[in-house]
Specification:
alpha+beta, Aminoglycoside 3'-phosphotransferase, Chain: A, domain 2, 2 domains, 5-stranded antiparallel sheet, 3-stranded mixed sheet, 14 helices
Amino acid sequence: MMRDTVTKDINQNIVRDCVSKIVKNRIESLQECHIEPIKTISKNFITKGIYRIFGKAVVDNQQQTCSLILKIIHPENDEKYNPQHHNYWKREALLFQSNFLVECPQNIRAPLCYAVEEKEDNSIWLYLEDIPGNHEPHWIEENLCFIAKELGKFQGAYAAGNKKLPEAPWICKAWLSSWVKGCKQYTDHPTIYYEQIKDIPQIAQAFTAYEALNDELEDHLARLKQCPQTVSHQDLSRQNIFITKNNDDENQVAFIDWQFLSISALGEDLAKMFGVALSQGDIPLDKAKHYEEALFHAYISGLALAGWKGNIQLVRYAFCISVAARSFWEIPKLFKLLAFKRNDLESSGNAKQLLQIVNLQVSYAKEAEKLICQLRF
């Protein structure tokens, strides 16, 4: 949505009520109020826009600077009306209207929601906390491991039975299955381009791996259900993770954008974080294995601190197959890119990088197959 349209349609009474909640006092007026769009690395299909509203609240004749986030969501298409779709459009709104964020482990923060407004155009406007902190300069190994450890503590509380898994019907129960189905729906099948590029080194290997993973997909998805289950965010990209401060001025992890909330296997969320970081260039490809080992170790440490004492190989399997499943998005993209680049891998830096990522994904598929034999399931 255009900023002018948002400015025109915004409910000033709701904004004032939200600001009153922020300053914990009834405000007399809101002055110098501005709205600015927030740019994102990638935007969810159901998100019409994200804006920061900021200004000065007058309380007891004194001004206080304040800000909040406005997120506007809409159905986008018919499939997003299914509560079990991985991108069910109302999920985040229903999450904020529930008690989930109050009852979940508090070592990871989520933004406060000050108001949920349903508009006549079938959109929903979420008025959210503007979480202080930063995510861009802090995307280094030490902080990534801190995030992974806190994620393990959060998810381990559910896996260990200290927290009960939520049962709300709008929480996705088969997120990876729905996501892979979406990949296949919105990407070209690799066979469309394979004949044009099959002579390029490593392409035949990638194609064989894609077909093998596809043939075994339903079995893999069934095995994931046998792994320890937990609450998962499923969208842990850099833009959705902040390192902020708690009340004791200690570092704390905060996650925003809970649209993909699911019940998934331990390890799936870490795989999403690692896989997306590779795809978006946040982890150097030449150090991918080093980062992966450090992150996995930190995550397992967090699980142990939460009291989980289960089979680590089950977590490893879920991690590996979840990283490998990203090839359902990356391999079609690679093949199409190479076909339109006239098979010239050497002149396309993007293609070379994507091939490296695909080869990593294929390696995790192979590790998952070995783990199946070890786990005998």
